[in-house]
Write a structure and sequence with these properties.
The chain is mostly beta strands and 972 residues long. The chain has eight domains: 5-143, Immunoglobulin-like; 147-252, Immunoglobulins (Immunoglobulin-like, Sandwich), CATH 2.60.40; 295-431, Immunoglobulins (Immunoglobulin-like, Sandwich); 436-553, Immunoglobulins (Immunoglobulin-like), CATH 2.60.40; 557-652, Immunoglobulins (Immunoglobulin-like, Sandwich); 662-762, Immunoglobulin-like, CATH 2.60.40; 770-868, Immunoglobulin-like, CATH 2.60.40; 877-971, Immunoglobulin-like, CATH 2.60.40. 6% of the residues lie in helices and 49% in strands. Strands 2-11-10-5-6-7 form a six-stranded mixed beta sheet, covered by helices on one side. Strands 63, 64, 65, 68, 69 and 70 form a six-stranded antiparallel beta sheet that branches. A hairpin with a 2-residue loop joins strand 66 (801-807) and strand 67.
């Protein structure tokens, strides 16, 4: 169910590793959890809520986060879920917690199919290095709803003074505090009353901890209670609303009957007495009258005996007197040594006076000695005119061909006139009913490489033993595939063929079966093949047979329609292509349709045969010129083939129909813009489809927002002939910063191109100088190396100017070389300026600013141009820890020193620790300074007092910009 207690140290190591690898920061971590206890219904899902309520530290990511859900049941503690360093290292199979949820601050644990083993304390612990840790505990209780069953009589008669019992059973509930009460609602009294005469059994605990209890109520219903309803109300913690079950009992008035027993009894006694006197006289007369031996005929039998069908055997007995006779039927099967009694019928005096009789009648056994249920029909006795008697005994049998064939049936007649009796015998010849074979059922269409079932119905036969053999014509000869006899199967091709039987038995013991041959049909092996089903049965002299011929077809597969190009352009030719493959036979019809209308000029495809599988394929194409009106059109490649009941087709809708936008050049109004005078930049985007298009303006690669600070951006939409157009404008009042700025418009029309359409416009204000791009030598500056940054200004009207260089807000006075103003052919001046300096870590992410000022007038503006050097962050190099003195004595003070060198930028965090103890207050870190390589370096110290034994000290350095963590260890 979870981790064992032995795995705890591993988690501690992982969490400590996260703590030691994290930066030193001040933060606050608080958790919010579910209100305890959390109650969950048995076998349902429950969620234990745990989320970060407050956290003021760094942003959550998978590398600086640890989550532990632990479970405590009694004294045993285990782990339900562990997440460290972006990896879910352990989790119950019932527990679920997604990493995406964890990184959003939600550590709630979902438990599925909760059982009683999940009851206990759950602790949610969250670790965020370097020193943030929070935990909260939640108690989980598992509840089980009771199953309520009401036991009662269906109908109770009222008025007899009887008692009625109603039972209400609660089973499988937890906790065991639950109760049940019975209430009676009587419509005539319009009230509901609590029944108090109850009996409650003590609660019984099940092995899983749930409980069972029964509440019974006893009452004597009266006439006025008719129409009442009885409800069992159940109270339990799992029911938020009252729960009740109504008893299905009906009260009705008892029927009143008048007793006539005394009258009937007296009549019956009189009749019995009279009959007894008469019977005694008849008995004495017949008993002592002279005896006449019976005449016994041969046993008469049906013309044909059918297995398990009713057959009657009749034996006529006539001319005997007195009317005292016993007729017994016996059976002797082939393997029996003695005959066994089936049944006997006898006629005797109403009572037996053996001391009067001159001779006793020897009788056969009285009980059936066979294992069958044949019976003798009750015979009727006829008295002849001469005072003798006649009767016939009929034996009803259901012969079994496997047991009773060639058996003997004996009829014995015993009469007082003949003590040995008279016997008649007959031998049984039982026939079966041969099966009737219907035509073999095959699929309407047999498809290539698909499963096929051939079904042979074999109907209305008995007995059950049957032999079925499936054959196939292979290489001109009839060869067996499999044999089925007496529920045993011999499959000669087990890898290809399989067999199954479905059976139905009728009340008359006849059977019908369906023999089903299953196999995978292929064109190569089964096209125009013949299969035979041969059936042998005891009722058949020769096996019966049915055959079927298969014609295998392969229905065509129609691939999706491809278009060239993929995104068709309005007004340009579009080629639609569709591949139809894997069909057989060859004849096929392919048509292209547009909105159910046939396209007549479609290309006639060439049909080719695949040499691997002998199936046919073709590729059909159709060339069209889509217009805007075709947006709602449907193009079909429709295929008709003899293997298909309905045509197959692939559809193509030109949903991706596009028209590329035409983007004009950006124009400026006025054509010659001036400083501090409003201007408008305009670009026209025309003839595009679909309408969805995104337009963005950029100034020097910075996207412009329509907030009025940089200008007013406006768009106007047009639509002609189904195509769309837009006019995009931006209105602004230029300042000196806008001079020589590049304004760019980007049009993103995702349906026609993944790349945006662009137009650029360089804004040159009238009468202002022009600045060149910054040039660096070398192009990739290095720390500690010299760098030359130069630029030039042209179009200056006079020499009274000033140029300056700045690093951020710091004015640079050294390393600047400016040329004298040079007169050009346009009667304007040009000046070149170059800044030379040594690159250091202080220049990282700091802007260089070139500033130009016209000194001829006091209100002339200042022009600024910015550049940021392409410098990269460099992680520190940390030396090994040194101790001074190298071997301190016990109680002596010492200093551990570690050099942190050559890094950029200067933001580093240092943590000294000994084991699990950190020395934030004792450690010292010098302010980083620029070293000989132009990078920062610093020194960190930790004063210690030496103790006896071995101590392990750790210096951990974390560079914030590169996120590199370097750890050095020293064993004292």
């Amino acid at each position: 169910m979870g981790w064992s207690e032995n795995s705890l140290p591993f988690l501690v190591q992982v969490v400590v590793a996260l703590v030691t690898l994290a930066p030193l920061s001040e933060s606050k971590l608080e958790l919010s959890v579910s209100q305890s206890p959390v109650e969950v219904i048995y076998n349902e899902s429950g969620i234990l809520q745990c989320a970060i309520a407050e956290f003021t530290g760094s942003t959550l990511n998978s590398k600086n986060l640890g989550v532990l859900w632990s479970f405590t049941s009694g004294t045993k503690k285990s782990k339900a879920f562990v997440y460290t360093s972006g990896v879910i290292s352990e989790a119950w199979k019932e527990a679920e917690l997604l990493e995406s949820s964890i990184l959003n601050g939600n550590m709630s644990l979902l438990l599925k199919h909760v059982t009683f083993k999940h009851t206990g304390q759950y602790q949610c612990e969250v670790f965020i290095p370097p020193n943030d840790k929070a935990s909260k505990t939640i108690k989980l209780e598992v509840l089980a709803r009771p199953t309520v069953t009401v036991v009662s009589e269906k109908t109770v008669e009222v008025g007899k003074g009887g008692e009625m019992v109603l039972g209400c059973q609660l089973s499988g509930y937890y906790p065991c505090e639950g109760s049940a009460e019975w209430f009676q609602s009587t419509p005539s009294q319009a009230e509901t009353k609590l029944l108090t005469d109850i009996c409650i059994t003590p609660p019984v605990k099940n092995p899983d901890g749930t409980c069972n209890v029964t509440t019974e109520v006893r009452l004597e219903p009266r006439i006025e209670d008719i129409g009442s309803t009885f409800k069992c109300f159940v109270s339990h913690k799992t029911f938020t609303e009252p729960f009740f079950v109504e008893a299905l009992v009906t009260l009705k008035e008892a029927e009143i009957r008048l007793s006539t027993r005394s009258v009937v009894a007296s009549v019956i006694v009189s009749i019995i007495f009279s009959v007894a006197v008469i019977a005694l006289g008849i008995f004495l007369f017949m008993r002592f009258h002279y005896k006449v031996a019976p005449k016994v005929s041969q046993i008469q039998r049906p013309a044909q005996l059918i297995h398990q069908e009713l057959a009657e055997f009749t034996c006529q007995v006539s001319g005997y007197r007195p009317n005292v006779i016993t007729i017994s039927w016996y059976l002797k099967r082939c393997n029996d040594t003695e005959e066994k009694l089936i049944s006997e019928w006898q006629e005797d005096y109403p009572f037996h006076l053996s001391f009067i009789m001159g001779k006793k009648i020897e009788r056969a056994g009285k009980k059936n000695e066979t294992d069958i249920e044949w019976k003798v029909k009750a015979a009727s006795i006829q008295k002849n005119y001469d005072g003798t008697f006649s009767t016939s005994s009929i034996l009803e049998v259901y012969p079994d061909i496997s047991l009773d064939n060639e058996a003997e049936i004996i009829c014995k007649v015993i009469h007082p006139s003949n003590s040995e009796g008279i016997s008649r015998k007959i031998c049984l010849k039982i026939d079966g009913i041969p099966p009737k074979l219907a035509d073999i059922i095959k699929p309407p269409v047999v498809h290539h490489n698909n499963s096929v079932m051939l079904t042979c119905p074999i109907n209305f036969f008995k007995p059950r033993p049957l032999k079925v053999t499936w054959h196939k014509i292979i290489a001109g000869k009839k060869r067996p595939l499999l044999k089925y006899a007496n529920e045993a199967e011999n499959n000669l091709y087990p890898g290809k063929y399989s067999h199954c039987m479905s059976e139905f038995s009728y009340p008359d013991c006849t059977h019908s079966v369906c023999s089903m041959l299953l196999f995978n049909a292929t064109i190569q092996e089964d096209d125009n093949s013949q299969y035979f089903c041969e059936v042998g049965h005891i009722g058949l002299k020769n096996p019966a047979e049915k055959h079927v011929q298969l014609n295998v077809k392969a229905y065509p597969s129609v691939n999706a329609i491809f278009s060239e190009p993929v995104n068709p352009v309005i007004g340009k030719e579009l080629i639609l292509t569709c591949k139809v493959h894997s069909f057989y036979p060859k004849n096929i019809t392919v048509q292209w349709l547009k909105n159910e209308d046939i396209i007549m000029d479609a290309e006639t495809p060439e049909i080719v045969q695949n040499s691997k599988n002998e199936l046919y394929e073709l590729t059909s194409s159709c060339t069209i010129t889509p217009m805007v009106s075709d947006l709602q059109s449907k193009y079909k490649c429709q295929v008709q083939h003899e293997s298909l009941m309905y045509p197959r087709f692939a559809e193509y809708i030109p949903e991706n129909l596009v028209s590329f936008p035409k983007v004009s050049e950006i124009t400026c109004d006025p054509a010659t813009p001036e400083l501090e005078k409003e201007l408008t930049l305009t670009c026209r985007i025309s003839d595009f489809y679909p309408e969805n298009i995104q337009i963005e303006w950029f100034r020097n690669d910075v996207r412009m927002n329509n907030d009025g600070k940089q200008g007013r951006i406006m768009e106007r939409s047009l639509c002609e002939n189904g195509l769309h157009s837009k006019i995009a404008t931006i209105t602004l009042t230029p300042s000196t910063d806008d001079h020589q700025a590049e304004y760019r418009i980007e049009i993103c029309h995702s349906k026609s191109s993944t790349k945006p359409f662009k137009q650029c416009y360089e804004l040159l204000l009238k009468g202002l100088p022009k600045f060149s791009e910054f040039r660096m030598e070398p192009e990739n500056p290095l720390y500690g190396k010299n760098l030359s940054v130069s630029t030039s200004v042209c179009g200056i009207s006079h020499k009274n100017i000033t140029v300056e260089w700045y690093k951020a807000s710091e004015h640079i006075k050294h390393g600047i070389t400016n040329s004298e103003p040079m007169l050009t052919n346009e009667n304007t001046y040009t000046i070149n300026s170059c800044l030379n300096f040594t690159v250091t870590a202080e220049d990282f992410e700091r802007e260089l600013r070139f500033q130009y000022k016209d000194n001829s007038k006091t209100d002339r503006p200042v022009f600024k141009r910015l550049i940021q050097l392409p410098l990269k962050a460099v992680p520190p190099k940390v030396s090994e820890i040194k101790c001074s003195p190298a071997h301190p004595k016990k109680g002596e003070k010492a200093i551990l020193t570690c050099n942190v060198e050559h890094f950029c930028p200067m933001d580093v965090h240092v943590i000294w620790s000994k084991g699990w103890t950190e020395y934030k207050d004792k450690q010292s870190v010098e302010t980083p300074k620029i070293d000989c390589k132009g990078l920062y370096s610093t020194v960190t110290n930790l004063p210690i007092v030496a103790n006896e034994g071995t101590a392990e000290y750790t210096c951990e350095v974390w560079h914030a910009k590169t996120n590199d963590i370097i750890e050095k260890m020293y064993i004292l």
